Amino acid sequence: MGSNKLSRRNFLKLVGGAGLFGTGILAAGCSGKTAGGKGWIPSQYEGTGNWQAQVKGRIAIASSNVSIERNDSKCILCGQCIEVCKKVMSVYGSYELPLKKDIPCVNCGQCSLWCPTGAITEKNNITDVVKALEDQNKYVIVQTAPATKVALGEEFGMEPGSIVEGKQVAALRALGFDAVLDTCFSADLTIMEEAAEVLYRLKNVQNTLPQFTSCCPGWVKFCEYYYPDLLEHMSSCKSPQQMLGAVAKTYYATKMGINPANIVSVAIMPCTAKKAEAKRSEMNASGKEIGNEHMMDVDLVLTTRELARLIKLKQIDMTNLDNQEYDSILGESTGAGKIFGVTGGVTEAAVRTLYYYATKENPPASLLNWQEVRGLKGVKEATVDVPGFGTVKVAVCHGLKNARVILKQVREKKSPWQFIEFMACPGGCIGGGGQPKSAVPPTDDVRTARIASLYKMDAQQSKKRLSYQNDEINTLYKEFFQEPLSEKAEHLLHTHYQDKSNLFTAKKDL
Ligand code: SF4
Ligand code: SF4
């Protein structure tokens, strides 16, 4: 490089904040199709050549970001992180410069999936978990999200979508966790509350319809950033991760005779945004119960990738482990809880129970295989007739750019829907930012394989497919909550949201 030019090292320093100052040269576009389905895939990777010609900049990541971080020495300024943040999530470039108080980030971690060099990763919490496991005074519980069960195996050479639920349980026991619980249990619990909530809104407060799902923290933060005027539509239900955390340090602790202050609650998630969700100041309902507001419901979150690293670190032979079952209690789940991990799954699960709440009858077979809400199309719509109640219209979207399409209609009061599911990541949580990088960037083939496995777990491997048939859930209500939306349930299982629009100035007409 000539003396009149910047050295590569200094150039890297200069553009390190490209996202912050808007100096990055934008990456080439996606393949030119819409953001949904096949259009997720970028058309770049032009190959080697003059590196300066390929520099496209990179996103800026705040040092305070609790979900992701970047090792600048690995960054080649390829611009893939910008590509996904802008074209799929519609976050990068959605704000005026200069920024005010925050570098906008919904914590989804998609950039870490697309980064070809591994420069962007999740914030590492493996050491914290190991420390907790080695502390004899702590009772360390762990929960596993549905999407991890069809992806963890990929880190050990298995085919995309391999179902490793039982092996994952065995691996966690081998690591020394005191109890292995299931986020699918609390997905069923979420459905009990969320379906009751939508029924309440349908009957009593129609002006707060459509009801938005709230189990994806990436989506929730996106709404808080850009659509705070629509937050009244957001379900007050906490996500399954946080519901299990709150129940574990209250009901479970009492039943097991454990001091909740001695519990370390760990979650294995496909998601980097879950690390941020666990740290939200509102997520301390169990702590408030015992007068300790510093005690959080969930203490530590590991991504699927981090769990794989921990298993390898401890030299556990994952592939040869025998399947094991979850602990009881907080370990039983239905097929409805399992499909939470795919786009459309929350809607399908919720409508199955909504149908039951409204009619006191089990839903028809069509709602156990609801094709209209399935698949990788970016925005999906469907209707369901609930006898004696009427027609309920639903919409489902994934990828936050697609969310804007729907939100525009809601804002303009042109929405025909009563219930809308939003998932930040393409494909839903199976394509989460903490999942194995089995293809870089992620492909629809990998997503489709994982999706098929979760539907298989629902349709072929679950004895029950309806959340209200979960015996442990019914016992929980009988012994503790009494009924969905009870005062205790409101306290432990529901939350509120914050208008975050003042942290930066969002561009208009996004
Ligand atoms: S995707 Fe990774 S390597 Fe490429 S610019 Fe972003 S951080 Fe750097
Ligand atoms: S879609 Fe799932 S993995 Fe992605 S941010 Fe939302 S909760 Fe996390």
TrEMBL record:
Pfam families: Fe_hyd_lg_C, Fe_hyd_SSU. Residues 66-94, 95-125 form the 4Fe-4S ferredoxin-type domain. InterPro entries: 4Fe4S_Fe-S-bd, 4Fe4S_Fe_S_CS, Cytosolic_Fe-S_CAF, Fe_hydrogenase, Fe_hydrogenase_lsu_C, Fe_hydrogenase_ssu, Fe_hydrogenase_ssu_sf, Fe_hydrogenase_subset. Keywords: Iron, Iron-sulfur, Metal-binding. Gene3D superfamilies: 3.30.70.20, 3.40.50.1780, Fe-only Hydrogenase (Larger Subunit), Chain L, domain 3 (3.40.950.10), Iron hydrogenase, small subunit (4.10.260.20). SUPFAM superfamilies: 4Fe-4S ferredoxins (SSF54862), Fe-only hydrogenase (SSF53920). One of its GO terms (molecular function) is iron ion binding. The keyword Metal-binding applies. Coiled coil: none annotated. PANTHER family: NITRATE, FORMATE, IRON DEHYDROGENASE. NCBIfam families: FeFe_hydrog_A. This is [FeFe] hydrogenase, group A. It comes from Selenobaculum gibii. The lineage of its organism: Bacteria, Bacillati, Bacillota, Negativicutes, Selenomonadales.
